[in-house]
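Reopening this ticket.

The earlier resolution said the output was attached, but the attachment link was broken on my side. Pasting everything inline this time so it's all in one place.
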Amino acid sequence: MKQLIADRALLPDGWRNNVLLEWDDKGILTRVSPDAAEIALAPRAVGPVLPGIANLHSHAFQRAMAGLTEYRSDLNDNFWSWRTLMYKFAGKLSPVDLKAIAVQLYIEMLQAGYTSVCEFHYLHHGSDGKPYANPVENMVCLIEAAQEVGIGLTLLPVMYQYSGFGAQAPHAGQACFINSPEWIMSALKTLQASHPQHAGLRYGVAPHSLRAVSPQSLQELLTQLRQWDAQAPVHIHIAEQNKEVEDCVAALGARPVAWLLDNVEVDRHWCLVHATQMTTAETEKLARSGAVAGICPTTEANLGDGIFNGVAYAAAQGTWGIGSDSHVSTSVSEELRLYEYSQRLLHRQRNMLVGSESTSAGGYMYRQALRGGATASGRQVAGLVVGQRADLLALDPQHADLSSKHGEQLLDSFVFCNHGQTPVRDVMVGGHWVIRDHKHSRQEQSALSYARTMKRLLD
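Inline output:
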């Protein structure tokens, strides 16, 4: 039996002392005992222990674009002009490039405190649209990257068919994305045969957006998916831009969130990403559905998407989690901090995102992101609870931001202080230490491989 003692650990009922954690060979917690008697042979965590969080929205390849689009490419530079640059970059990538980028990214995620990632993956073919000899080659690269690095993975192959509402024909930059419900399901069955799901790996699907799929193909995909796996997660980009909303109203007669909730059985297995353009009625109805709102504050700010109505959604008791999306940042604390700050700027008040049981913004947000990320991932990563995975962070007790702080002060400081190196010292995933003293065993090798990849892509 594997064991760890935490002097302090965040459990579902709050901070507890002298917590004994035990897990089995699959990395699943079998015992969580606060106020445990001293066990001489059990190792101790170096500092306060937090449950690891799932990053619920990632496009791994976009990590290599960070810093490359911060110039005006259009007189009216916006999401759509950024997207044109993204297509050009995506067309340069080989499977080898994708894996090198993913390994680097996943190490960075672990170092920042993410222990799982939901990969919203749409680079399926070569840049000319021709399938690889192995049609799922890029997805296998992502699975291998996650396994080698040690991060939990929910892989969501994206169905992408059209360039806009009304089944507009895709353009050249989208050639490597295009597929069908049948292609997606064939890919999932192929992956399940070659890389079966387990505690660290889960499969789902991602209809890209209502503008990129038709109502008919969306229903076909969902029908086939539920026959294959009734519990599989489904993620979708939903209402990122005003133009997207306007086009949806023109084509389908309703706003994107409203149309989806009225026409599809949306439940807790769904994650709606970038629901930044919602009415009050849509906000409340999404909260009631049980679906997860996928909030990506650093990317949504970078792309000028808008501000999610977090206060109203929280009041409606909606479930939400965070994602680093385009990876201009891979910091758990920065996503949470910017989420709260966006609400402060919108409402011109402080400490907007707090729960009824606590006035701590950091504490409320960390717990909510933990819950929402676990739900969106479709995996057993909902905290330090028997039956969940042994995914955890040990904070550095010597870090200046944590000095002499306890309880919710630790979470508030983790989220809102930013003074250099992350206070995340050690990271465990599935009962295995993957980060020790801020370092990953593969980080030097990965950095060299990533540098070679970037040199080739930018030359």
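Reporter confirms the inline version is readable. Residues 128 and 172 are 8 Å apart (CA to CA). The first strand starts at residue 2 and ends at 11.
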